[in-house]
């Protein structure tokens, strides 16, 4: 039975396509507006920082509520709020309120909505497809998300040139509302995996958050794969801090050309994620992890040696292929997590990764004053290297556990 047989997955995929297009539009518009207002690494850092601070604060609570309440309602609420804030921001821009502070506020609202949406998305995916199809589902979802994100980024420059930033943010808000419609169309009978609700009193919210931290810590395989995920997410989410100034100041790219570069990165992710199940069967999980890690490291080093825009696009393709390892790591973490705790575990991961991102943002902003812009890419290489070390530890534990099980048998 194919993955597309499941109605819930089809609707979730359509929702992802609409919201990813919205994210692509809003992302490029806000980052490029920030660079236009203040042409330095610190401006981009502040914009991205404002996204993750609310996420760190709200994730401990949001994960518990995701496990308690209907994920459809949580996703609908998160995307409705995101649409409202984007349209409001567009209205304020029409009044010529285009300041860095306003950009940070709109990103903060997006971070708050993301704190609700990410754990809900992760859990609902496990509920609408059977476990044996989870890697396919995650791969297809990531592929279509990246496709929408790529299209959104690619057309942002043209929309800005033909109309204005106001139009971009209003279109993005409308697309989030379309995503809400698809979410509301998912029915209870579309769920194929159902677990008991985590029915706990409200005063135990933060207690339950620490319970999820202990749950991860006490499961060595889950702990180390979560650490892999954290380093990968930090790598991906700090990428704009160095690539936006790099593209503008070294490659001399404009908003449209930077959108094309991001589009090539997304194409690489699409190739990797969309065929992830095939790559896994061909290479095996361990070799696939190491191959994708290697692609990411080689791509970052190639970026440092390059100053031509057309070469940067090809390097971006390789980088996107390496970044697609995220799909494999996320699926492995899902398989290692009890379904009834999925929301809290994912929210714990998001909050810890958010703290890591704050530290890396601070490091990049500090280093940008003292070293050449191109050398900041070594920070990204170091993050992937840390993910490789964490994966090696995971593999050692997995092999050791397998040997013990065979000995007991």
Reported by name, the CATH topology is Growth Hormone, Chain: A
| CATH architecture annotation | Up-down Bundle
What is the element string, with H for helices and E for strands?
A: HHHHHHHHHHHHHHH
- Main beta sheet: none
End-to-end Cα distance, whole Å, is 33 Å
Number of strands: 0
Mean pLDDT comes to 82
Low-pLDDT windows of residues: 198-203
CATH class: Mainly Alpha
In a few lines, what is going on in this structure?
This protein has 409 residues and is mainly α. The protein is built from 15 helices and no strands. The longest helix has 32 residues, at 377-408.
Question: Could you characterize the architecture of this molecule?
Answer:
α2 crosses α7, α8 packs antiparallel against α13 (325-335) and α8 runs antiparallel to α15. The model is unreliable at 198-203 (pLDDT under 50). This protein is mainly α and 409 residues long. The chain is built from 15 helices and no strands. It has helices at 7-37, 41-68, 71-94, 100-128, 134-162, 165-185, 205-217, 220-249, 255-274, 276-283, 285-304, 309-323, 325-335, 342-367, 377-408. The chain has one domain: Up-down Bundle (Growth Hormone, Chain: A).
């Amino acid at each position: 039975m194919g993955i597309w047989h499941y109605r819930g997955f089809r609707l979730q995929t359509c929702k992802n396509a609409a919201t990813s297009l919205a994210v692509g539009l809003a992302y490029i518009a806000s980052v490029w507006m920030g660079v236009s207002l203040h042409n330095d690494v610190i401006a981009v850092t502040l914009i991205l920082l404002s996204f993750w601070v609310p996420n760190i604060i709200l994730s401990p609570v949001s994960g518990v509520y995701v496990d308690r309440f209907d994920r459809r309602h949580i996703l609908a609420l998160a995307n409705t709020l995101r649409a409202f804030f984007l349209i409001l921001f567009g209205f304020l821009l029409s009044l010529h309120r285009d300041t860095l502070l306003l950009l940070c506020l709109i990103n903060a609202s997006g971070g708050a909505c993301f704190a609700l949406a990410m754990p809900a998305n992760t859990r609902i995916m496990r509920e609408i497809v059977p476990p044996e199809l989870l890697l396919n589902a995650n791969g297809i979802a990531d592929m279509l998300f990246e496709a929408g994100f790529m299209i959104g980024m690619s057309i942002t420059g043209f929309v800005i040139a033909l109309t204005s930033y106001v139009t971009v943010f209003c279109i993005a808000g409308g697309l989030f509302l379309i995503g809400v419609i698809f979410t509301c169309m998912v029915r209870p009978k579309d769920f194929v995996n159902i677990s008991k609700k985590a029915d706990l009193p409200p005063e135990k919210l933060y207690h339950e958050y620490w319970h999820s931290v202990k749950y991860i810590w006490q499961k060595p395989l889950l702990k180390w794969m979560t650490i892999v995920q954290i380093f990968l997410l930090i790598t991906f989410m700090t990428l704009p801090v160095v690539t936006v100034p790099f593209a503008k100041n070294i490659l001399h790219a404009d908003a449209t050309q930077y959108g094309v570069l991001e589009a090539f990165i997304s194409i690489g992710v699409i190739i990797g994620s969309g065929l992830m199940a095939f790559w896994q069967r061909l290479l095996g999980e361990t070799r696939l992890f190491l191959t994708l890690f290697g692609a990411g490291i080689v791509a970052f080093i190639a970026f440092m040696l390059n100053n031509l825009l057309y070469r940067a696009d090809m390097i971006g393709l390789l980088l996107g292929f390496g970044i697609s390892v995220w799909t494999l790591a996320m699926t492995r973490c899902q398989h290692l997590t009890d379904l009834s705790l999925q929301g809290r575990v994912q929210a714990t991961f998001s909050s810890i990764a958010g703290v890591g991102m704050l530290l890396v943002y601070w490091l990049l902003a500090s280093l940008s004053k003292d070293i050449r812009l191109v050398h900041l890419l070594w920070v990204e290489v170091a993050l992937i290297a840390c993910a490789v070390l964490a994966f090696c530890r995971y593999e050692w534990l997995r092999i050791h556990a397998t040997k013990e099980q065979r000995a007991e048998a």
